Amino acid sequence: MDLERGHEGWTVWRGLLLGLLWVRAQISARLPTFGLLGLAAWATAFYFARRLYLFDLERLTGLHVSRQVLIGRDFVNVWTGGLLARLGDLGVIYDVPAYRFVLRKAMELGGIYAYSYPPHTLLLAVPFSLFSYPVALALWTAVGAALFCHAARPYLSRVRLPILVALILPGSLVNIWAGHYGFLVGALALYGWRWLDTHPRRAGIIFGIMTIKPHLGVLVALVLLLRRDWAAIGWAAAATGALALVSGSLFGFGLWPVYVLKTLLFQADLFTGEVTRSFHHMMPTTSAAILLLGYSETTAKFWQAVSALIAVAVVIEAFRRRVDTLDLGLIASTAVFLVVPYAFNYDMTVVSLAALVFLARASEWEGFWTRLGLQTVLAIGFVLPLALPWLGQQDVVIGPVVLALMLGGQLLLVARPHGLKVSFPTRFIRHVFGQRLSA
Fold it and tell me: InterPro entries this protein is in (predicted)?
């Protein structure tokens, strides 16, 4: 068994190493763009990814990492929720004690699992329950990864990177490990922003589907209101209503009041409970950071409000400066983690993408010290999803600070294009023709 585990561990590490070498080959031609800081960020990310994956592999027995954890981790909830809905055991889904009893009996799994997603997510969960758990997990990961790569394509093409880079972003690697919604919600956000200018109806529908993780879309609503994009708003509302209607027709409308009145309150209590405080080191949010530092819930709420105001102000300022929609979407997707108190590192797929894209663009900044500062902040922000658990264990709480600095750097890059480098031929032409025109 030890030899088998050692072989599995080496296989994963070898795969990660090959991935790192592939990434290095892809960006080696752009070394002047990413610089040594960029390469160091990739190397650091893969170091933490190795720690994360080997931690599970070294403890793996069958599908169990431990008595409380199954491989694929949070995908347990997706698969179990879908199975219960398909079998008609709807009353169990949001009944936490009954739900956990099912997990103990069916999968010999303890822990603090609960189905905490809105009822219309069952429309997505049921099809995956048709397969065995390992097959369903593989399909869930593959489909999500394919969607995210496709959605990220125009963002990566702007900095001349292949779409497969999206698979090995720090947020992506954490999401694969956690078996969560990061790929799907990230893809929906990226699709929505890229279609908003040209296909507002399509974008609105996509944003409506994003309500499977409603808190991650709060700044989408703000941007749509700022833009007065009534078509997108209307279609988003219609899509949300249609999903609620279809899920209610199939699974019963009684699930919705249970979710709103009980499950959301349960999640709020869970956030501040003693048992779940061990998960705060996986959260980049301000509230989690303040609680980790030992301060009261009141103090956490105060600083959460402060960080939310700062994030909203940055998004409004970016809109006021008529920032390109794709860039505005990346900024909003970063800012939301300073607005909401409850979010995890596996939700940060788009944050990783934004950090990488802006890191590449930061190298074009003309001033050396400003460029170095931008690259440093963005490189740290790039690694953050993978580094958070280790940093939390060392009592180093920097998530909100890094996000705030990264957000400021993003705004600086998109709001001050005159700070970017201008090639010598362009400067020469401007100089010569400018003198002639003035003469």
Answer: GT87
Tens-digit pLDDT profile for residues 263-286? 888 777 767 665 556 688 899 999
Enter the pTM of the model: 0.87
Q: Which two tokens stand for residue 300?
A: 């956490």
Number of domains into which the chain is organized: 1
Answer for the pair 193, 328: CB distance below 8 angstroms, yes or no: yes
Classify residue 304: in a domain, yes or no.
Answer: yes
Where the chain has pLDDT below 70, the residues are: 1-35, 270, 272-278, 417-439
| 258 inside domain | yes
CB-CB contact of 406 with 313 (8 Å): no
**pLDDT tens by residue, 403-415:** 999 999 999 999 8
Residue 416 CA from chain centroid, whole number: 27
DSSP 98-130: HHHHHHHHHH---SS----S-GGGHHHHHHHTT
Closest CA to 370 of 324, 434, 413: 413
Residue 80 falls inside a structural domain: yes
- Tell me which residue range forms the domain holding 365: 2-419
What is the C-alpha separation between 230 and 225, in angstroms, rounded? 8
Cα 345 to chain centroid distance, Å, stands at 7
| Phi, psi angles (nearest 5°) of residue 58 | -70, -20
CB-CB contact of 330 with 426 (8 Å): no
SS3 label, residue 181: coil
Residue among 48, 3, 23 nearest 384 (CA)? 48
**Calpha distance 56→69 (Å, rounded):** 9
**435 domain residue, yes or no:** no
What is the spatial distance between Cα 252 and Cα 394, in angstroms, rounded to a whole number? 46
